[in-house]
Amino acid sequence: MDWSPDKTQVKSWNEWDTLRHVIVGRADDCHIPPPEPALDAKVPEDSDMRGQWGRRPQETIDRANELLDNFASMLKKRGLRVDRPTPFDFSKPATTPDWHTDSNFGCMPPRDVLLTVGHEILEATMSYRCRWFEYLCYRNLMQQYYDEDPNMRHEAAPKPRLTDADYHPDYLSEKIGEAKRLEWAAEKHFVTTEEEPLFDAADVLRFGRDLVVQHGFTTNLKGIDWLRRHFPDHRVHAVNFPGDPYPIHIDATFTPIRPGLILNNPQRRLPQEQRAMFEANGWEIVDAAQPAHNQPPPLCYSSVWLSMNVLVLDPKTVCVEASEVYQADQLDKLGVEVVPVELRDAYAFGGGLHCCTADVYRDGECEDYFPKAS
Question: Residue of 58, 82, 202, 241 with fewest CB within 10 Å of its CB?
């Protein structure tokens, strides 16, 4: 059935087919969370966020929302249907029988929470305590899609307990040092243990029949195994990137643009032994262009490599952050139409153009892009 803006349909099998319906996040009431194991391991040791927490300044929230609203409006003008989450009061504490944290986070990056695979939208476990309840921001939309699309499946992965047993205590020091972090990353020793399944949706890339999942801070091997069992008709592949001392979310490291073409962060190259599936099937993995900035914006978790955190609208059209001129130039030379989108002042709220969106519907069906995969 062809897509119609007047009829809700949930379907998305990959990262590049023509996007028709998307969720764009909001910056309302976003908080820098209080210290917790997952957060402490992720925040860079030299970051201006160390030792700070609380509601972000209102002028920065307003600016981020201005950019997100402009992005949503641009997508609507291109004919896309755009939905937005419903924020709750993120200043409220979050408490379970196992832990307490003094605030929640926000709802700028729906890509972290929601994974669309075919006709299903799956809510991820989430690995941060401050993000345990974030799924609530999207429940109104999930209920609407479920009511309007008889083929839609709304699933939620088992909510983890997130006790201290889920985190390696050696990551809680502020003075680990980058050399030790890189050593641990090469050894696949991450802050998350194998106590229970953990995964963030932004660690998963969809290639039709194949799901490529990053093993790192926010997704453990049990989480990858859970995805493998949950999607038995898919081949699920674990990947890792030893050059990343803070491995959280795959979409500033490994970015599919169209069938046969992937951008890879040159500081975090896919190991040679994990390239076999791609090379056997004629896929080209190219080093992404260098970022245009030497530092992330103030109070930002993410690295400068949000330059490659792009949103593919169709195999010939890609949204790139407007200031990331080197990434735009590279994609232009690769034969892609670049749509510049100003978003840098919203990076601190949860990421880039891929992070702040979640697919609801893309054209195309489930294809096998790796028929020679082992």
Answer: 58
